[in-house]
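To: structure subgroup
Subject: Chain for Friday's discussion

All,

I'm putting the inputs and outputs inline so they're searchable in the archive.
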Amino acid sequence: MVYFCTEMKPYADVILPLPLPRTFTYRVPEELIGTLRPGCRVVVPFGRKKYYTALVCRVHAEKPVGYEVRDVSALLDREPVLLPVQFTFWQWLADYYLCSVGDVYKAALPSGLKLESETVVEYNPDFEADEPLSEREQAVLDELSRASQQAITKLQQASGVKDIVGVVKRLMDRGAIFVREEMRQAYKPRTEARVKLAGAETLGEERLKTLFDRLGKAPRQLDLLMKYIELSGCASGRELREVSKKELLLRSGSSPAAFNSLVEKGVFETYRFEVGRLDRQQLTESELNPLNEFQQRAYDQIRASFRQKNVCLLQGVTGSGKTEIYIHLIRETLRQGKQVLYLLPEIALTAQITTRLKRVFGNRLGIYHSKYPDAERVEMWQSQLQEAKEYDIILGVRSSVFLPFRRLGLVIVDEEHETTYKQQDPAPRYHARNAAIMLASYYHACTLLGTATPSVESWFNAIEGKYGMVLLHERYKEMQLPRILPVDIGELLRKKRMTGQFSPLLVEHMAGALSRKEQVILFQNRRGFAPMIECRTCGWVPKCKHCDVSLTYHKGMNQLTCHYCGYTESVPRSCPACEGQELNPQGFGTEKVEEDVRTLFPQAKVARMDLDTTRTRTAYEKIIADFEQGKTDVLIGTQMVSKGLDFDHVSVVGILNADTLMNYPDFRAYERAYQLMAQVSGRAGRKNKQGTVILQTRSLEHPLIAQVMANDYPAMVKGQLNERKLFHYPPYHRLVYVYLKNRNERLLDLMARTMASRLRAIFGNRVLGPDHPPVKRIQSLYIKKIVVKIETGASLAQVRELLHQVQQDMLAEEPFKSLIVYYDVDPV
């Protein structure tokens, strides 16, 4: 429980940014008693010579028993950086997703708010060697002779010594150096030089006249002083305006030398002023677009639903104008003096939505995601803690749920079905949609889940009455849904009528669209040039050294890359197994599609949007802006292009291979395939006329293809619910995946079988496995997976206790001490 102290409470419980199962108690130094509060950051020692930035969660007078209490080293904040409700939210995340609060802390706070200790090495000037030093020891001392104190990371880089920790330890043992830990802070406020008149508090006409007389023979300095008086308003009697040095020099056209002379003469004084990095310029707010008849009805139904239930599912077909409904709901929430959190599944979507929201709400909108520099995220966090600076609307991706809110009134989860809302690694492996619903409940706020293709769980919760539900089946301005034309590429391949990955029908429609100056989107959910290369002679395929996967071929970089651990190597000139010269790409990714389109349509302007081309914020913003402005004719992409983007002139969408979506070993494969195909199809014909979707598949008779063509979501979800009820899958049962990892494959097999048998003794036939996941080794660690199915009515707290007990019993046994165990609750 979090509470504030007003009396003598000399102990503090703190959360460390480590995966530890509990908090730790430290003694509060006398000078900090009464000033240290829950939510403040403190520096504490932990372990040997290590310091961490910890978060105070409780201040009390209960001396711990059983271990020596260490002192808090420093208090970093005058005011808390965490609000009381956030502690409650963090604890729920840790309990529900079976991780520690320290894991949540590491994920929640921007890096700039977490100080880290760094080893500093200092040369001992009194050291005399009694025996020869090794070459590496001498290299370290030579570098320290140039700068006697250096951080160990910089020392390693400057000296060129690779295993520097061992070298430093030997030198320390011999008394050649001293070692200490220093705290370093990643975030530094941005400041600028500001100017003021020396003695401005006694400024009057006589003082100004004296200054003018002194500078009579220095016209440039006098001009600079006159410009300062004009900019600051100090001669007008009004409140003085702060003037930056940069602005003064720019507006006056004076040189730095003239300015420095005025400082030396005691006319000007300079000081540093924190200006921040966030764009807070005033923007003119505009009126809302009126809702049409169908949107207005949906808006009214949502508001009526919120009077009965705090969560409402809005299923609106693609192009129905859901965003406009969100904007009207935001305006109503702001009128009530409350804040809004608007979640998106992809950073790529923020560019278009930002433009629309800023047009209406101006600088009341703040944006938060990982493509922004960490310093900006720190300032966003700090602004939310200050009533005068906080944003009324936060637009962001899943990490935005961790921001501090004081007046949260509405949470919008757009494209709520998207799997990218689920954090995979590291812990906490939370689902932002579910976390947002829980966060809203702490504020008694409402949550709107919006999508054209709801997740099966959300649909089930709506039809069972747990959520409200509103349907919007009419497209904006009564535009027709795109016509979907299926193509049997299996038959075309046999007849050798395919051009690369393109059927004749797709080529024909692309050519027609380009001739009419319309745009085309091509969807292939695999990046790179080809999933692998293969020796034509012996069948050799290059594999990752650290993972059990083939390396993906990236032609543009001429390298092979592992998409799991990032390992890369150059493409061999010949097969290392048989020295064959023919290494052929197998399969195709977005890079290959891009090359083929440029060959087929050399006059077309082509762009690609996948993880490789959107590494930075400006990269994806430019790709979208160019396509939006008609500078790009064909956009090729992975699932990034399937969701939420709104383009006026897209008339053709090509789904190049639907089978790769459906033929995946997962119980959600059909649901995901339907969602992706329906969403990417919705990008066609959104504003002007009916669009066309060319759906290429080898499984023309598959029922899912017919459901996509008919836009028959109810039929798809009905079949999925029947199947999942039969085999005890969500939403009828909750899943917990237990992952076990170890470098020793045989030992891991023994560990996994032992843990599975112990879990079966408790949970019975609810336990499946152990089995290997689709990729059985990642980053040199072998992986086993155990599935635990839990009835939705069962106590998750009890399940958590039982799982942790089995884990602790396993790790207490000598053969299993090296076992890595973690959990994935509600996997997607």
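Points worth raising on Friday:
The mean pLDDT is 87.
The radius of gyration is 31 Å.

D.
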